[in-house]
Amino acid sequence: MLDEEKDDAVADLPNHCSGAVPVDGDDPAYMVRWDPSEDANPQNWKPIYKSWITFQLSQLALAASVTSSMIAPANHIIAEYIGVSDTVAVLNVSLFVVGFCVGPLLWGPLSEVFGRRVSLIPPMVALALFSVGTGFSRNAASVFITRFFSGVFGSAPVSNVNAALGDCFSRESRGLPVSLYAVAVVGGPTLGPVIGAALTVSLNWRWTQYIGAIWVAASTFVCYFCLPEVYGPYLLGKKAQRLRNETGDQRLWHPHERIKVDVGSIITKQLSRPIKMLTTEPMVTCICFYASFVFAILYLTLEVFTIIFRDIRQWSVFNASLPFLGSFTGIVLALVINVGNQPRYKRISREAGGKAVPEARCPPMAIGGTLMVIGLFLLGWTADPRYHWILPVVATGFIGAGFNTTFQQCLNFLVDTYGIYAASATAANTFLRSLFAAGLPLAARPMFKNLGVGPACSVLGGIAVALLPVPFLFMRYGLQLRKMSKFAPVEEDDEKKPAPPT
């Protein structure tokens, strides 16, 4: 329960909160820690209970991500109703994704001061309310404003669930839970159009928002009653308070009790440092651009599939949404690649003395990039109605598998490379990918209408081909780049180790 190693406890605390250090009178010998087998420690909970927690957290993430795209099939109807062009109506999705960029600036710091529940449940309640607000909207301003704030609040589970899973699972055992969470996050935008199209046809576009709100509210209701607090430092702070009350020994303390939200530190970590890393760190620049490109392709398909299957092939609104199931199937099948890499990664990590080895994340990234290239070219040149519909649908599966594999390994690479600065590196990625995902769909209709589907997909496929060398370059030169980095220092014994086998 007590430990003299002050630095270990402080290292567990959030990086963007200040004041998490002993004050006068705090004796390190009385700092509260977990007992090795303590039941209150989320890391020690039974696997079946952790699975239940994983399901709840993934449901929150899935509900939020589905809500981002359910409205997409109704864009042309909404455009006519509020008096804007089809291109402007794409802001329904783009502004939601912009909210994904803004929200984590708030929910990240809150989660590490007040715990995960506070940063998840109230924002989801707000997401449900703003979704209802969109459904009741009567003009463009109210539609777009409510969609933006839906994105701000809906970003809470997307940005915090990964950290919550890390609270419950060790690095060695979190591979499968994180992969399942990733399927919820990246699969949601492909399921949303199918559900939204069915609702638009059978009811009307407003029900895409009402049903989304009901889904969010139901998931939040379950979590309100069943989801425990999982953030270790917060729980240890509560444990210290309880022990002081029970024993009367006021010397007992935990550093989490000393922290406060420091606006200056939040600005440094969430804004200035991520931008600096994005512009000065070659690894961050390349990985973030790669991850942002594939993330933008996911949201670009919301428009592209409509152009190919509804406009060109003259399918109905609902039928034109069914190819998204091909993307979802590809996303699920990508689990084989992501989870299959875990034993190899664990072996390489053990050989490196238990340390993270970013270069071991690159082979799956290369596979994903190749699948993305195949999918984009196949989609573009089989879109014409003279080709059987199964060919572009198969292409959507390649795109989904390529996206999930590439995107997840890009995030893993940043976390492995930058350690204590990983939050800043991933914040840079969140910022850039949100800009890409918000902007690229707006250009989809003009681009595909002016160039044609084949040439437009070839342009995107060409960019994907240009990005293919990224994982191979990092496999070959990753260690040297880390040695040159100001944010990813390499220990001396790491320099003597050869690059991991591919």
CATH architecture descriptor name of the largest domain: Up-down Bundle
What class, by secondary structure content? mainly alpha
Let me know the CATH homologous superfamily of the largest domain.
MFS general substrate transporter like domains
Beginning-to-end CA distance, first to last residue: 43 Å
- Biggest sheet: strand arrangement: 1-3
Helix content: over 70%
The arrangement of helices and strands along the chain is EHEEHHHHHHHHHHEHHHHHHHHH
Kindly provide the name of the CATH class of the largest domain: Mainly Alpha
Number of strands: 4
* CATH topology descriptor of the largest domain: Growth Hormone, Chain: A
Main sheet: strands, sense, barrel: 2 strands, antiparallel
Domain Major facilitator superfamily (MFS) profile: 53-479
Membrane topology: Multi-pass membrane protein
Keywords: Membrane, Transmembrane, Transmembrane helix
Subcellular location: Membrane
Q: Briefly, what is this?
A:
It is built from 20 helices and four strands. By secondary structure, it is mainly α. The protein is globular.
Descriptive keywords:
20 helices, mainly alpha, two-stranded antiparallel sheet, Growth Hormone, Chain: A
Characterise this structure.
The chain is an all-alpha fold and 502 residues long. The chain folds into two domains: 28-259, MFS general substrate transporter like domains (Growth Hormone, Chain: A, Up-down Bundle); 262-486, MFS general substrate transporter like domains (Growth Hormone, Chain: A). Helix content is 74%, strand content 2%. It has 20 helices and four strands. It has helices at 6-11, 47-69, 75-82, 86-89, 91-102, 104-114, 116-135, 140-168, 175-202, 206-226, 232-247, 263-280, 282-312, 324-351, 362-381, 390-418, 422-451, 453-467, 469-484, 492-495; strands at 2-3, 17-18, 31-32, 260-261. The strands form two sheets. Strands 1-3 form a two-stranded antiparallel ribbon. A two-stranded antiparallel sheet has the order 2-4. Helix 6 (104-114) packs parallel to helix 8. It is globular, with a radius of gyration of 23 Å. Keywords: Membrane, Transmembrane, Transmembrane helix. InterPro entries: MFS, MFS_dom, MFS_trans_sf.
